[in-house]
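Let's practice the habit of predicting before peeking. Look at the sequence and jot down your guess about where helices and strands might fall. Then scroll down.
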Amino acid sequence: MKVLLSIKPEYVEKIFSGEKKYEYRKVIFKKDVDIIVVYSTMPEGLIVGEFKIDSILFDSPEMIWSETKEYAGVSDLFFNQYFANRQEGYAIKILEPVRYEKPIDPKLEFNSFHAPQSFCYLS
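Done guessing? Here is the structure:
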């Protein structure tokens, strides 16, 4: 199954350059997901590529950071602010990111497109 994940443009660039190999989340999918389709949030507002899920780490933010910081693509300050007051979190390990040759404008492709707050399942 695929999900559409909203990611800020600065982190999208780091994913496709290989600098960012983990995507951090406070909540994770309930269904079995193997592919993430990347929606680059505004000001871009386009579906720009996808990647496979290698694995998903679930642990305390401290343990996640110690395991992933080398390829986090974010500062420790950002990471700590994102997971502030959280006992646990998720790190999705990115595998084989592929940028689409031609990005997709979801507003042209789907009748009533609304960017997902975090993610949405795709059929």
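How did you do? Strands lie at 2-7, 22-25, 35-40, 46-59, 89-104, 119-122.
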